[in-house]
Amino acid sequence: MILDAPKNLNRLTIPAFLRFEKMRLTSGEWIVALLFLLPALLHFGLFKYYPVLYSFALSLHRGRLLDPFDRFLGAYHYTFLLQDSYFWQGIQNALLYTIARVPVGAAISLALALLLMNNYTGRLFFRVAWYVPVVISSVAQVQIFIWLYNPEYGILNYLLTEMGFSSLMWLGHPNTALLSLILLGLWGSTPFTMIIYMAALGSIPNDYYEAAEIDGANAWNRFWQITLPLLMPTTFFVLITQAIGALTLFEPVYLMTGGGPLGSTTMPGYQIYEAAFEFNLWGRGSALAVIFFIIVLSITMIQYKYTPESYTQ
């Protein structure tokens, strides 16, 4: 028989370290606490909040190299960007890239994690082999794929011609340039999410599968009724983090395509760099950063809003 706890507990039964409402710090204790917090506060103030506030203030000015605040323009940069087709093309490319890469990457990562969790000969080798892209720098990844996409001696075109298809201008045609970035993104991001899924799969008790197997559930039913529901919090984390990473893509665009051809791979991250550091329009680049921050934050909040609460815990 389980006895119900009394509604009004005696304060003496509650440990002292839990009674925060009664704690009072002396002035000396406040000084010591602030001294311990000072390094973290300085870090966040100098490298987090100050750049954000500075960028917002800069977005309201013309923004030149020698005198960033030489002329106040108000919301001019914002109205210009909202009417600029090149800016919206970057937003469209970023959304297409994210929609194509993130769900497919999560599905591939889960499939690989399920395969690598099984016991078979050479499992350790395949685990290490699949994880290799994570330890390779983004610049090295880009150089590998530039060689693969080369229209003359790239291995992808060689395989296509051997199978009877015509070769492609992977990075030189608007119809295939964004796809080339998506393939690179899948290769580079899948191993990391695969490790996350493997850790989540290892935390699922075997008792659930044994009970389901006794009840006659086959492997497919066990996956849909046990594995997938229990992996939903992990999937939510993967989708959020990968979506943010996909929306803020910069290095492959800068190193592989430069936003081309014909703007088919331009992204907001590259447009911010292009405006600020190529055209010396710091105010416009800062306005781009502010607008893009609002867009990414809105997409993240929408994901939180329409995701069941149990998946976010």
What share of residues are in beta strands? under 5%
CATH topology of the domain at 84-280: MetI-like fold
The rounded Rg comes to 26 Å
Helix tally?
13
User: How many angstroms separate the termini?
Assistant: 31 Å
Q: Which CATH architecture of the domain at 84-280?
A: Orthogonal Bundle
General shape: globular
Q: Please estimate the helix content.
A: 55-70%
**Helix-and-strand structural type:** mainly alpha
Largest sheet: none
Description:
The chain has 313 residues and is mostly helical. It has a domain at 84-280: Orthogonal Bundle (MetI-like fold), CATH 1.10.3720. Helices cover 68% and strands 0% of the residues. The chain is built from 13 helices and no strands. It has helices at 27-59, 76-82, 85-116, 123-135, 138-149, 155-162, 174-202, 206-214, 219-230, 232-247, 251-257, 268-278, 282-305. Helix 1 (27-59) crosses helix 13 (282-305). The chain is globular. The two termini are 31 Å apart.
Write the layout of secondary structure elements.
Layout: H1 27-59, H2 76-82, H3 85-116, H4 123-135, H5 138-149, H6 155-162, H7 174-202, H8 206-214, H9 219-230, H10 232-247, H11 251-257, H12 268-278, H13 282-305
Helix pairs in contact: 1-13, 3-7, 3-10, 4-7, 5-11, 7-10, 12-13
